[in-house]
Amino acid sequence: MKYSRFFILFSVISITFFASCDLKKNGEGEWVQLFNGKDLTGWTPKITGYETGDNFGNTFRVEDGIIKVRYDQYDSFDNRFGHLFYEDQFSHYKLRVEYRIVGDQCPGAPGWAYKNSGIMVHGQTPESMEKDQDFPTSVEVQLLGSDSLVERTNMNVCTPGTNIVMNNELIQDHCINSSSDYFFGEGWFTAEVEVRGNEVIRHIINGDTVLQYSQPQLDERDATYAKLIELNNGDKMLIGGTISLQSEGHPIDFRKVEIMILKE
Fold first, then answer.
1. What would the pLDDT profile of 79-95 be if each residue is shown by its tens digit?
2. Is the distance from CB of 96 to CB of 254 less than 8 angstroms?
């Protein structure tokens, strides 16, 4: 299969195009851990206003075998949106994370980011982002909590710099709700994303499929479009890209991040 130049040209030598050979060989049809439970080896932070690799405020850290997103070294959130990128890129796969949203929101974080985080798929590389860019051009699988202050479905989709297709209709709204129940408390939940290139993406929470869409593509209205469409040889369709975990102002833990490579 001929892959999109968007991802090849946005990669650096140290980043493999889609899954590494070892991961594809050993991971096809089997769950493979992307987080070693000890440190952030294989992962790169990119925080708005900072250079790639600068983990301001120790935002992303590993403690007690868990990836923790914390803001105890922030005076104010100040729109410092962060993303922790895995080093490989992927096209056809299942991604599964165990997560919990905990504690209090960072002072200064936007109201909509309360009990809000996410997983970004089909993303650009951190090296290709502008220093002050808030979110990578990607498709976001939202991880959302509810409580007495707010109730909303979980595993919604948002589309920074992209669009999707649902029921044969191009969706240009930024976010679309899933059909999930509300998720209360600070317990552990299991979120899964099934990604099959440009064909279909499914959101699954605790075993239930709550959202499905297809044809992820670059959004002509976005400021990154001109740059990315040129690098993508004029093709707006996205067939793969990076995976990243979000920092949007509310503490969150990830104790497991694993992938299963699927046959194309």
1. 999 999 999 999 999 99
2. no
